[in-house]
Specification:
The protein is α/β, with parallel strands linked by helices. Helix content is 31%, strand content 23%. Helix 6 links the parallel strand 8 and strand 9.
């Protein structure tokens, strides 16, 4: 299948600010020598990104293909993995239908795989179960199979930090993409680079209202 070009006609790849971990003495790093053959896999913590978008006053209805195209920054996208937990119809039929419609839409994004955990009710509050485990297992499995050179983790959840060290043992580069206000100290400092999502052109990434 031919890879879709998500950039507007005549547009150039935007150089995103990449930096080392928080509080590091090293100056921000850019990627002056983009290697178009570098294989990039993107792992998206769906619920975490949704809340990050809301907290940063960014649109929550976005084109994930365009988002990942900017994150790749001229490199070769191998696959996108999106993780979430489905709402149960009996719990909230309206939200269930909205979420199912959303899932159907993102399934249409080229090279995106939808990975679902489950929701359990704890003291009346829905809690995601199995989502983080799915994400970590996939990152390590595909690293072990040498399916990518660089992993971009879109999340502000510091619990992923230990898993990133395992990926480095497989010789992989790790980039953490999130908003400055919600980034995790541990996650950023266990990554090779931090991508500031605040600098992305969200007016281009947001879905247009019909």
């Amino acid at each position: 299948m031919k890879k879709e070009n998500y950039l507007p006609a005549g547009a150039k790849h935007r150089q995103v600010n990449y930096s080392r971990g928080i509080g590091c003495a090293n100056p921000p790093l850019s990627l002056p020598n983009i290697d178009p053959t570098e294989r990039v896999a993107i792992f998206i913590d769906g619920s975490n990104l949704y809340h990050g978008l809301k907290n940063a006053s960014r649109p929550t209805q976005i084109d994930f293909g365009k988002l990942c195209n900017f994150l790749c920054n001229g490199r070769r996208l191998t696959r996108i993995y999106y993780y979430n937990a489905p709402i149960k119809a009996q719990a909230d039929l309206s939200r269930y239908k909205q979420q199912q419609s959303f899932f159907e839409q993102i399934k249409k994004v080229p090279y995106l795989e939808l990975k679902l955990g489950r929701l359990e009710i704890r003291k009346g509050v829905p809690v995601e179960k199995g989502v983080d485990v799915l994400l970590v297992v996939d990152m390590i499995r595909y690293a072990r199979n040498n399916a990518y050179d660089t992993a971009i983790l879109v999340s502000g959840d510091g619990d992923f930090a230990p898993a990133l060290e395992v990926l480095k043992e497989y010789g992989k580069h790790i980039e953490n993409a999130y908003f400055k206000s919600g980034r995790s100290y541990h996650l950023a400092n266990h990554s090779d680079r931090f991508i500031d999502l605040d600098e992305l052109p969200w007016d281009q990434i947001a879905l247009k209202k019909e």
